[in-house]
Design goal:
The protein is of the alpha+beta class and 189 residues long. It has helices at 12-21, 42-52, 55-60, 80-86, 107-125, 139-145, 179-182, and strands at 34-39, 72-78, 129-133, 153-154, 157-161. Strands 1, 2, 3, 4 and 5 form a five-stranded antiparallel beta sheet that branches. It is globular, with a radius of gyration of 19 Å.
């Protein structure tokens, strides 16, 4: 994950390959209940950054100073209604998953996250950089500003561009957990 980008544009063919990859993964019931808002025009990007980040945060951050230079931002949007409709169809109705609270794990978030990961992987394949980050403020204003229908839930945003540094997150100093602490063979010990 990169936090510093140049303003250099991403070649259109590379962007199309990145976006196409998001449509190639699995989804529950092959619902494909996710959409993506792609911002790649300067006025849309400026409006997004003004809503997503406070000026105080921009002025105070040292680790993300080039983030808002990214020439593309993709907002992954989960659509719960698509799953409720799909699982009401004849071949899935036996599941009893016709209301949001019926889903012990809301797959609209899982599948949208899978599709987002495919974007992140494709960015690497294009020798570009990306940062997935949460939208922690003004989500309603972002939805209104970009005319995102109410049924969609933004799960975050992905900044994509040419990285200008090999900045390393201070969080990485924590190191990876040992595999033995994450994988439990046949039972938890």
């Amino acid at each position: 994950m990169y936090r510093h980008f140049s303003r250099d544009p991403i070649p259109e063919i590379a962007l199309q390959r990145i976006l196409d990859s998001a449509t190639r993964g699995p989804s529950a019931g092959f619902t494909q209940g996710f959409d993506f808002l792609v911002l790649n025009e300067s006025d849309a990007l400026e409006r997004f950054w003004d809503l997503a980040l406070t000026q105080q945060w921009r002025d105070g951050t040292r680790s993300h100073q080039g983030l808002w230079n990214a020439p593309v931002v993709v907002i992954p949007l989960a659509n719960p209604q698509a799953y409720l409709e799909r699982y009401s169809e004849a071949d899935k109705s036996y599941s009893g998953l016709t209301r949001e609270h019926d889903w012990p794990v809301p797959y609209w978030f899982v599948d949208t996250a899978f599709a987002s990961m495919l974007i992140l992987n494709s960015v690497v394949n294009e020798n570009l950089g990306a940062l997935f980050f949460g939208l922690f403020r003004n989500v309603s204003e972002i939805k209104n500003s970009f005319k995102i229908p109410e049924r969609f839930i933004p799960i975050g945003a992905i900044a994509i561009g040419h990285p200008t540094s090999n900045d390393i997150s201070s969080s990485l100093r924590r190191g990876r957990r040992p595999r033995s602490s994450q994988f439990h063979m046949n039972r938890f010990q």
